[in-house]
Amino acid sequence: MVGTGGPVATFSVWDYVVFAGIILLAAGVGLFQAFRGRKEASSEEFLLGGRQMTAVPVAMSLTASFMSGITVIGTPAESYRFGSAFWIFGFAYAIMSAISAELFVPLFYRLGVTSAYEYLELRFSRPIRIIGTSMYIVQTLISYYSVTGLDLWGVLVATGVVCIIYCTLGGLKAVIWTDVLQMVVMLAGFVAVIARGAVLQGGLTKIWEDAGEGGRLQAFDFDPDPLKRHTFWSIVVGGSIMWAAIYAINQSQVQRYISCKTLGHAKMSLYVNMVGLWITVTLAVFSGLTMYSIYKNCDPLSNGDVATPDQLFPYLVMDILADFPGIPGLFVAAAYSGTLSTVSSSINALVAVTVEDFILPVYKDLTQKQVSWMNMGLSVFFGGVCIGMAGVASLMGSVLQAALSIFGMISGPLLGLYLLGMFFRTSNSIGGLVGMIIGLVLTLWVGIGGQIYPPTAEKTNPLPLTTAGCNNTIGQNYTTITPWTSPVTLTPDYRPPLADTWYSLSYVYFSLLGVLTTIVSGLLVSVITGGCKQDKMNSELFVRKNDLTCFSWCNKSKESDITEKPSANICMGADNPGFKEDDVMSKDVEKNTRL
């Protein structure tokens, strides 16, 4: 009987057929885009879709990249165990969208960049650009094997190979259109679970009532305590900065919206993506509430039916949907589609930053054909690395939770560096570098400390669950559709004084800590080292008033957005005596000719 514990069914033939069909359909969409665009083999076509994409597909791609494998299976488990507070991230998504669309999109369009980290060289220095790019590469590889949540070698390799093929042949355009299909599949997976749960429980109203009785609807906690895991303030304030660090400067996201044909389309893609994020988080949270309504009297985790929280949602799927052949296959395809989207966007972004930030500045005489072959070769290389990371993930256990937190720790100081350069004309490269290092040290310190000495239940506030209604013996351990992996945190017997204060800082505040530390310390060091010594600064490297007043209805053409590209960073010349403005001008001419 559903909701009473015990083993559940396994995959049927039709489930495998549906799963394979959806993955092959995704590959077909990518390959279609690849062959349709073969007549244009330029680097700009491969990396940016020829800068001719429109708002809606880009927005759906942005949302799909958010919905990783862990998002599909982790968010419902979060809602099941901790309640609906996660839904408040919807406010953070709105603030993040405005920050990204109104501050960063005009800047990147005005500069005509391919890599988001080109800005760091224009504003500060080339060493800082290389450091920023390196941080992104490390962050991306770490986040990949942290967000997959999957441990089926055969399927991972198969989907990885499919992803490599369409990324290599089709570039960003193939990635975006494949993401559109994958987003639809992922949302369909959530809808299938909610619809079946409503039928079993007697309607959506019953699910809502059960969630209320179980304390799952008490989302708005206005306690200002920064040590509590999720409060209204931590999610809205800290969450906004955390997601801004991902959408505003992360190459995987930046590369999508700068591929739009106009500035207006780029801005609109972020606002449409905001709506997509609202729909996604609402369905994911309600899926968790549906799971609680079904298992309110028999928690599968406490009963030993599953080993980790990340197995809860797959267990639910097989428990309530096994009688409908093919539907469980749809759910697994949804989870793997999230992983596929993550991998494809990572591959394309890694290729872009490697070529633009490391190779082309050194080998300036490469022909367009050589660059195109290099793009495809690097796609294969990074695809192989991602598959290898999936293998490492299945062997590293508790290290994964630390790795996932490190992803957030790196983003904050890097965002602080951008904001330092965009808003404060007195900041120089020395201040920027020192500020970012100090911010990174602090976020790594608090983050790693929190992994070694996890916060107590008083701060994380898990809600009560019971096994009173279970019909099976506690302690049995059954598997579901796949051995989903999840990190297990070991709690040391000894807790130092910092464990219940500094190390208990909510993970949502890590990025905010990094941003503030980088800006404040960067400004202080810049002032101490003389600031920017020039009388005149290039205004195109800073946020302008009309960037804010123009809002999303600006509809400049691509050409008008990037023709007035700054030739040099004046302040960078002060910190680098050997710098010549003509050198940067010649680099811009070479790049525009090549593209």
Automatic annotation (TrEMBL):
TM segment ranges: 16-35, 55-74, 86-109, 130-147, 153-172, 184-204, 231-249, 270-295, 315-336, 373-393, 399-420, 432-453, 507-528
Keywords: Cell membrane, Ion transport, Membrane, Sodium, Sodium transport, Transmembrane, Transmembrane helix, Transport
Cellular localisation: Cell membrane
MF terms in GO: organic acid:sodium symporter activity
GO cellular component terms, A-Z: extracellular exosome; plasma membrane
Signal peptide: none
GO BP terms: propanoate transmembrane transport
Pfam families membership: SSF
Superkingdom as given in the UniProt entry: Eukaryota
Keyword Transport: yes
Topological category with respect to the lipid bilayer: Multi-pass membrane protein
PROSITE patterns: NA_SOLUT_SYMP_3 (PS50283)
InterPro entries noted in UniProt: Na/Glc_symporter_sf, Na/solute_symporter, Sodium:Solute_Symporter_SSF
Protein family (similarity comment): Belongs to the sodium:solute symporter (SSF) (TC 2.A.21) family.
Name used for this protein in its record: Solute carrier family 5 member 8
